[in-house]
Recover the amino acids of this structure.
């Protein structure tokens, strides 16, 4: 094929082609919604003009500290205005933001900061004890120094020393703002590196790009049909997959970030009432907090509140509970490797005629791909053939398209394995139903194989969650000399509620085939990540060590 008429004299130019980057949303909102509130944090209030200026001052300050294309800036921050500003300033320098999980131990923090070769660390005083130790290990074990900027949040009154040579507000005041928050020349450039929890071996650094972050920010708004200027409450940690790209979605819509340092039912409901919050995201455990909060704490919330849930398959009882308190829930699914959510259980008009329990079942599926994601399906990982849409045949959920990571930092072998056959392999086992909506059956490592029968731990958990006393539960495999494995349930009861193991077993027998009913129920605290995901690997260790003792 030679050059055609449409190939001649019609080149890309500055006037007609710009790299996609979510940084551009901040500039537009400062232009269009400049006088409207952008961040609300306790007594502090900033408009979009002010947030753009503060972000541009931070960018100028970071540039003066040597941050540029390909530099990494780590953040150890709560959901505060500084964390929002870092999401705008760091990418504007074509640098890479690394949001550290505020619940990690010093050794893991030092390992991550070293692995991504961070040049600057922005850290909140609250985390000074763990960060002091992390910085010591970084120096002594990894031979690396970073420039430290301390955040002294006006809404934090607790203890915590300053660790660095710079204080955030003083640093902003000392630098004139950049004239513009620039987008990179190449949208394929890295925007963030986020570490997966690393349940086995070292965590992997998921590298994402400007194009994907831009497109997923747009997808969030389209998926949720978000209005202009929404009021968005930060219950989801911004360190988790860059807040599922919502720092950029809120910027795109000229919305208000309502910041929250602590995720507690009273604080969440107070913020909803005071600021007219209409959107928030969270893992199932946080939604359960709100469902189980006393009704008087919810009094006065008259606006429609829309919730997004992901992070673990939501139990049916939670979806029903949200409907009962009048919150509208959208169920999304994804992983760090796909920028947070990249699939959604799109609600169909016809579903509204179904019973509540059937609506709940339909909404509880992982669903279909986000509108700007090219592909999501269930494939046999050995043959890479699509499984039939029969709701029976198990395969692995796979994605491909623009909302998929660049790869794992400094780990080409893991990157190649994840992308084998031209798709990103999630490790989640699922079936496809007749409407082509995907339903997770389990993480590949969470399937319990008992007497040759596969038991979905999610299905057993769903049954347990339907008991009114159950606040949280997790089901794992216990080694068994006769059956190979049997299901064991760990249960936390709601405050003031009680249930016996016998009651819960009888309850499960009414909902499950007999081989799926837990053989043992333990009333113990369930270990969770900072985002409320249950850490089953810890429970597996408990069960193994217990069975070794017996």
């Amino acid at each position: 094929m030679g050059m055609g008429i449409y190939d001649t004299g019609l080149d890309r130019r500055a006037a007609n082609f710009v790299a996609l980057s979510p940084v551009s949303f901040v500039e537009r909102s400062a232009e269009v919604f400049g006088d409207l509130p952008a961040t609300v944090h306790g007594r502090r209030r900033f408009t979009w003009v002010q947030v753009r200026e503060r972000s541009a001052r931070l960018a100028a300050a970071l540039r003066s500290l040597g941050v540029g294309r390909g530099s990494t800036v780590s953040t150890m921050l709560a959901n505060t205005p500084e964390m929002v500003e870092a999401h705008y300033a760091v990418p504007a320098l074509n640098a890479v933001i690394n949001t550290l999980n505020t619940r990690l131990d010093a050794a893991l923090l030092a390992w991550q900061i070293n692995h991504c070769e961070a040049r600057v660390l922005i850290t909140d005083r609250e985390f000074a004890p763990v960060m002091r130790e992390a910085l010591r290990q970084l120096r002594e074990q990894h031979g690396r120094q970073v420039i430290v900027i301390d955040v002294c949040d006006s809404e934090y009154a607790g203890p915590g020393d300053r660790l660095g040579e710079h204080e955030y507000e003083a640093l902003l005041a000392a630098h004139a703002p950049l004239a513009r928050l620039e987008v990179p020349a190449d949208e394929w450039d890295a925007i963030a590196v986020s570490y997966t929890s690393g349940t086995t071996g070292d965590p992997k650094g998921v590298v994402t790009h400007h194009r994907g972050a831009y497109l997923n920010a747009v997808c969030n708004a389209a998926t949720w049909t978000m209005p202009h200027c929404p009021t968005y409450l930060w219950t989801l940690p911004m360190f988790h997959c860059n807040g599922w790209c919502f720092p950029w979605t809120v910027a795109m819509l000229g919305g208000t970030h309502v910041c929250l340092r602590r995720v507690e039912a009273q604080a969440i409901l107070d913020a909803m009432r005071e600021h007219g919050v209409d959107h928030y995201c969270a893992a199932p455990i946080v939604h359960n907090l709100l469902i189980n909060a006393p009704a008087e704490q919810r009094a006065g919330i008259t606006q429609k509140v829309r919730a997004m849930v992901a992070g673990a398959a939501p139990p049916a009882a939670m979806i029903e509970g949200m409907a009962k308190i009048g919150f509208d829930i959208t169920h999304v699914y994804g992983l760090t490797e796909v920028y947070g959510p990249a699939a959604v259980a799109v609600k169909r008009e016809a579903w509204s005629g179904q019973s509540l329990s059937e609506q709940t079942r339909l909404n509880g599926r992982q669903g279909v791909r986000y509108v700007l994601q090219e592909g999501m399906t269930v494939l046999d990982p050995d043959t890479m053939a699509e499984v039939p849409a029969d709701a029976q045949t198990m395969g692995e959920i796979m994605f491909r398209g623009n909302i998929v990571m660049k790869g794992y930092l400094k780990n080409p072998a893991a990157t190649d394995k994840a992308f084998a056959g031209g798709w990103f392999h999630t490790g989640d086992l699922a079936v496809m139903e007749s409407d082509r909506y995907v339903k997770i059956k389990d993480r590949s490592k969470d399937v319990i194989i008992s007497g040759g029968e596969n038991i979905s731990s999610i299905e057993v958990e769903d049954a347990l969650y339907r008991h009114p006393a159950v606040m949280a539960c997790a089901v794992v495999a216990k080694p068994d000399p006769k059956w190979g494995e049997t299901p064991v349930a760990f249960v936390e009861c709601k405050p003031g509620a009680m249930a016996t193991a016998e009651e819960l077993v009888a309850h499960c027998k009414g909902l499950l085939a007999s081989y799926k009913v837990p053989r043992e129920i333990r009333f113990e605290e369930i270990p969770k990540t900072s985002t409320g995901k249950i850490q089953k690997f810890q429970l597996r260790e408990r069960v193994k060590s217990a069975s070794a003792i017996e």
